[in-house]
Sequence to fold (126 residues):
Amino acid sequence: MPTHSRRRLLFIVVCTAGLVQAGDTHAQRRPFQGSRQTRLNKQDLDAMDSATKELLDRTDLADGSLAVWNNPQSGAGGTIVAGKGLNRNGMACRQLTYFTTVPEGPRATRTTALTWCRTKEGWKIG
Fold:
C-alpha cells in the first residue's frame, strides 16, 4: 500500500475513532459510536460485529464482497464491503468499508474505512 494511502487510512481511523486498541472489544467499536444523536446501541454493534466476522471468515472472500446487517428494533443497519487483502507483519489483513445508517441525527449516514488483521486471538482492527 502506498505511504499516502496508509496515512489517509490512519487519518480516517483517528478522526472517526479516536484511539483504537486492538485487544479491547469496546475500543474496536468506537469508530461506530459517533455523536450522541447517531450512536449505535449494543444490539446494533453486535449485528455489525457478527456481519464483519462472517464476511472476514468467508473462504471465497474477494474484493467487492458484501455483508449486510440491520437491527429492526433500532432501525440502524448497513453494508460492509471487502476491499483489498494485504499482509502486515506476516498477518493476513483485509480492508473493509462500512456504510452505516442510523435513523435519526445530523450524521444519519456515514462511511468508515478500517483494516482488519487476523491475529492469534481472532480478527482485530490493525
Remarks:
- Residues 13 and 31 are 7 Å apart (CA to CA).
- The radius of gyration is 14 Å.
- The chain has one domain: 3-125.
- Residues 3-125 form one domain.
